[in-house]
Amino acid sequence: MSLPPVADPPAILVLCSCPDESVALDIARELVTQGLAACVNRLSPITSIYQWAGRICEESEQLLLIKTTATRYEALEMRLKALHPYEIPEIIAIPVVAGSPQYLDWLATATNPLSVPPT
Questions:
Q1: What's 33's domain CATH number?
Q2: Total count of domains within the chain
């Protein structure tokens, strides 16, 4: 059974795993500073088990929970790819279907290109 796509979600949650704390913190700071994300949470450590180049891998990683809007997703994805050391970084966007109106308003303001201070 497939769920219908959410039209114009008020926000999206982007998941991105990173190899270590330094990379995760650098990426998180950069995304917030540039207004591509309103907030980034770092979960540490996580264990990732995945298949790569024909073998099963098990690695300790850091998981970033990136809060942004659908309109900022394309720029965020491009920046993540530029900053990330992995050949193919995990970049998965999940629509937010509901949330506190005050939080969602803040998130929209924090990621609005017109309200981001110049760096």
A1: 3.30.70.120
A2: 1
